[in-house]
Design brief:
The complex is a heterodimer of chains A (223) and B (79). With 223 residues, chain A is of the alpha/beta class. Chain A is built from 5 helices and 11 strands. Chain A has one domain: 3-Layer(aba) Sandwich (Rossmann fold). Chain B is α+β, with helices and mostly antiparallel strands and 79 residues long. Chain B has a single domain, classed as 2-Layer Sandwich (Mth169, Chain: A). Helix content of chain B is 32%, strand content 22%. Chain B has 2 helices and 3 strands, in the order βαβαβ. A 3-stranded antiparallel β-sheet of chain B has the order 2-1-3, covered by helices on one side. The N and C termini of chain B lie close together (8 Å). The mean pLDDT of chain B is 94. Classes of the chains: A alpha/beta (223), B alpha+beta (79).
Chain lengths: 223, 79
């Protein structure tokens, strides 16, 4: 990618981590305030973690109405890779760019810990270079991370191979151990774990590096 | 108007379940099927009640609830 736009909503708090992580992968990234409507300068978009609009009402419920989201939908439809991490995943589901919803963790506790994941599909911009079954350890940091959807949606996700990451030991009650999913084209991906926090073995894990390298190495998927 | 939002039938309700588990310790033995939810109260400027209800229903569907996991019920309430 030539340049990635990292969206910033009032209450986002992982945007600098993402910019830094992408920089380590030699990919320029810049912060884009949520009132922006022109995203044509970017060939990749990241919705970072945090608490957009304070997470009032529901996580992502208000961010969905931020002016930038119409442009995100247009970019997603034209094949631009879009990655939603944690709160960004919640925003993408509320905006209807990914199916299902993230509800409160089954144990009603905020969980912040490294979690073991398995790559479940390579049909996404995030996982296209990591073989199915690969074990990754990446931190999660959320209160509302239990992925939920109806039976028809779940069957469709399975049939279309759109479940990209599953928890090895389900920490939050997610349906089908789902940690991340993609849209049908594979260019829009949401996940609850934070790959940008797993960039160095010195800090516990570098397993996020491979995922983000896959993301920045992906071109526009037109389809 | 008043909008009550609760999780849909069949969607896990961890808050409701936690409340229900605590009840026996407080001496409530015959209380079951506890559901937790949210209530919103607001005033609507509209020519009549039907129009106000329509506005409230639209607001409930588009913002106050997530239809993927929640049901919203609209009723008239005096502020």
């Amino acid at each position: 990618m030539r340049r990635v736009g990292v969206l910033v909503f009032p209450g986002s708090n992982c945007e600098h981590d993402v910019v830094r992580a992408l920089g380590e992968l030699d990919t320029p990234a810049e912060l884009v305030w949520h009132s922006a409507t022109d995203l044509s300068a970017y060939d990749g978009l990241v919705l970072p973690g945090g608490f957009a609009h304070g997470d009032y009402l529901r996580p992502g419920a208000l961010a969905r109405f931020s002016p930038v989201m119409a442009s995100v939908a247009d970019a997603a439809a034209s094949g631009v890779p879009v990655l939603g991490i944690c709160n960004g995943f919640q925003v993408l589901t509320e905006a209807g760019l990914l199916p299902g919803a993230l509800q409160q963790n089954a144990g009603l506790t905020f969980i912040s810990e490294p979690t073991a994941l398995r790559v479940a599909s390579t049909r996404s911009v995030l996982t296209r270079t990591t073989p199915v079954g690969t074990r990754l350890v990446i931190p999660i940091n959320h209160f509302s991370g239990a992925y939920t959807c109806d039976d028809a949606t779940y069957d469709e996700l399975v049939a279309q191979d759109r479940i990209v990451l599953r928890y090895e030991d389900n920490p939050n009650g997610s349906r089908g151990d789902i940690a991340g999913i993609a849209n049908a084209a594979g260019n829009v991906v949401g996940l609850m774990p934070h790959p940008e926090r797993a960039m160095s073995t010195l800090l516990g894990s570098a397993d996020g590096r491979e995922l983000l390298a896959s993301f920045v190495g992906s071109g526009v998927l037109v389809g | 108007m008043q909008v009550d939002v609760t999780l849909r039938e069949g969607i896990a309700d961890p808050a409701g379940a936690t409340i229900e588990r605590a009840l026996p310790a407080l001496g409530f033995t015959g209380v079951h099927r506890v559901r937790a939810g949210k209530t919103f109260l607001f005033a609507v400027e509209a020519p009549d009640e039907a129009a106000a209800r329509a506005v409230a229903a639209d607001l409930a569907a588009r913002l106050l609830s997530n239809p993927v996991i929640e049901d919203a019920r609209v009723r008239e309430a005096t502020a």
